[in-house]
């Protein structure tokens, strides 16, 4: 099997990280902060930030930002691990899907999402820089990094997630424990996009990729059945 392209590797990292480092400009000087992050179906980053925060004031003055997604956690040699830097512009968004995807990823944020000083933002990416390890360095155009939104799937995402958690919790649990090798527990699905699903157990998040991109709820169903069949086969063999 051929290695995934730089754009696919970068998207996988974006979709898997619950936090990122946000760089803004403070009177011409760089200022970096830690933020919670989610991504839209096309992998566009989504933020929920307070107008009282320094980074939000900086964005109001100059919307140019950078985001660093760090995939090196736990590695003995961090510089051998992947990281992606995104350049772009932060823009306020009132799109209901953006709110829903962010709060599904970060349920605790629902406690303050409606406070008057908080607002959702999307980062319109202009360029991406992937470092996948020593010597594996790529600049990626946004047209390659971001997939096209699949509205047929986006419109059914909430139904898919609710159905899996309510009627197939055992399958979700197997995805985490058998396919990803994670500790046992009440794993829940929090999102479904064209390239995979997001899982969560307490404060821990995980990402399970599909074998191939999907376009709609029928495609999601087929992939999810294949994945649970694989997970049960592994379970039976162990």
Break the fold down into its secondary structure elements and pairings.
Elements: H1 6-16, E1 19-26, E2 29-36, E3 38-39, E4 45-50, H2 54-61, E5 64-70, E6 83-92, H3 96-105, E7 118-131, E8 137-140, H4 142-145, H5 151-154, H6 157-167, H7 169-179, E9 188-193, E10 196-201, E11 204-209, H8 217-237
Helix share, percent: 25-40%
How many domains?
A: 2
Question: Can you give the mean pLDDT?
Answer: 94
CATH topology of the largest domain: Pnp Oxidase, Chain A
What structural class results from the helix and strand content? alpha+beta
**Beta-strand share of residues:** 25-35%
The number of helices is: 8
Stretches where pLDDT is under 50 for at least 5 consecutive residues are: none
The N- and C-terminal alpha carbons lie at a distance of 26 Å
Q: Rg from C-alpha positions?
A: 18 Å
**Could you give the count of β-strands?**
11
Architecture of the largest domain, CATH level 2? Answer: Roll
Shape category: globular
CATH 4th-level superfamily of the largest domain:
Electron Transport, Fmn-binding Protein, Chain A
Report the sheet with the most strands, covering strand number, pairing sense and barrel closure: 8 strands, antiparallel
Order of helices and strands: HEEEEHEEHEEHHHHEEEH
Overall CATH class of the largest domain:
Mainly Beta
